[in-house]
Specification:
Number of strands: 0
Shape: globular
Distance between the termini: 69 Å
Helix content: 55-70%
Structural class: mainly alpha
Number of helices: 16
Strand content: under 5%
Radius of gyration: 23 Å
């Protein structure tokens, strides 16, 4: 009777045994991988447009700008330290992708199903989100029903993902500058009203426009909303930190990349969005205009719909087109 021990490696799938760590010669500093990748995610208008919006009176601004910004800082740090840093360090130390690293927790079969298959399925969900919001933005520019645009946009997006991703990669470094420029433009136009912003007046105006709106959130409610909003958006991207940070050189790169690309990017994008909404309602010029437009759209608390309030209708359509 043979007591020969069967090698463990022979029992493992070939995709695990053939995995090779990313070499040090292929690593790069944080500002060439982690930071721009995550910053691009947070610059997506779908993330920042609703940072101040809840159905409750006054939204996230019901207790003023300070609390809203504090909530964003808290949410940004939670994303960095609790959802990204550990996966990022695992990616850097092993030099292996998520579906391989995941086997240390879920096993060979579980690693294929959980980080591998599940993360792949989630991307179809994000494709749907992208298709919906981009189509709505395009519908404001061209006289075509949003539902028809969704069909075409979804097919094109899937095709690009399968066949044309190498072409997208060539311009992806510069595309995030478009939403950043639009955010800065909106901030520039609305910043004059920040000093006059009064959360009490905002709540009163909201109640007058939507009498059935739920009561304003308390302090804890505002913080809980912002944590849910930011962390809920970021959660799956945090798990992908293994893949994103595997090309970094050391722990410092992982940490700095997250602090800039996640924490700072969250505060800049969502923070500017909140400031824009507050500035509009604090302005004697834009505030009445927002209230007037809100009569047909419902009370406006999202920065995306502030675009045609801050600039001319013709310019607003082009800005919305660029965001899409």
């Amino acid at each position: 009777m043979s007591n020969e021990v069967k090698p463990i490696s022979s029992e493992l799938p070939s995709y695990i045994t053939s995995a090779v760590p990313l070499g040090t010669d292929k690593r790069a500093p944080w500002f060439k991988n982690v930071a721009p990748t995550y910053a691009g995610i947070f610059l997506w208008f779908v993330f920042w447009q609703d940072a101040a919006k809840t159905p409750n009176l006054g939204g996230a601004l019901s207790h003023g700008v300070g609390l809203a910004l504090f909530g964003l800082v808290l949410a940004a740090l939670v994303c960095h330290f609790l959802f990204y840093l550990v996966p990022g360090l695992l990616g850097m130390k092993t030099g292996l992708p998520l579906y391989i690293v995941g086997t240390s927790t879920f096993g060979a079969k579980g690693g294929f199903l959980m980080p591998g298959f599940l993360m792949g399925v989630l991307q179809f969900g994000w494709l749907g989100v992208n298709t919906y919001f981009s189509s709505v933005a395009l519908a404001a520019m061209i006289p075509v029903p949003a539902k028809l645009i969704m069909v075409v946009w979804g097919i094109l997006a899937a095709f690009v993902g399968l066949k044309g991703i190498q072409y997208v990669a060539r311009v992806s470094t510069y595309l995030p500058l478009i939403p950043l420029a639009i955010l800065l433009l909106m901030l520039f136009r609305s910043i004059g009203g920040l000093g006059e912003f009064d959360p009490g007046k905002l709540i009163a105006a909201h109640q007058a426009a939507v009498p059935a709106a739920p009561a304003a959130l308390g302090t804890v409610g505002v913080l809980a909303f912002l944590l849910t909003y930011v962390v809920g958006f970021f959660a799956t991207a945090g798990a992908a930190g293994v893949d994103i940070a595997m090309s970094t050189r050391n722990e410092k790169d992982v940490n700095l990349g997250g602090l800039v690309g996640i924490a700072l990017a969250t505060l800049v994008t969502a923070g500017i969005s909140v400031l824009v909404v507050a500035g509009v309602y604090g302005s004697s010029v834009y505030g009445p205009r927002a209230l007037d437009v809100g009569k047909s759209k419902g009370f406006i608390l999202d920065s995306f719909n502030m675009i045609p309030i801050l600039v001319s209708t013709a310019k607003a359509k082009w800005l919305m087109f660029l965001l899409a």
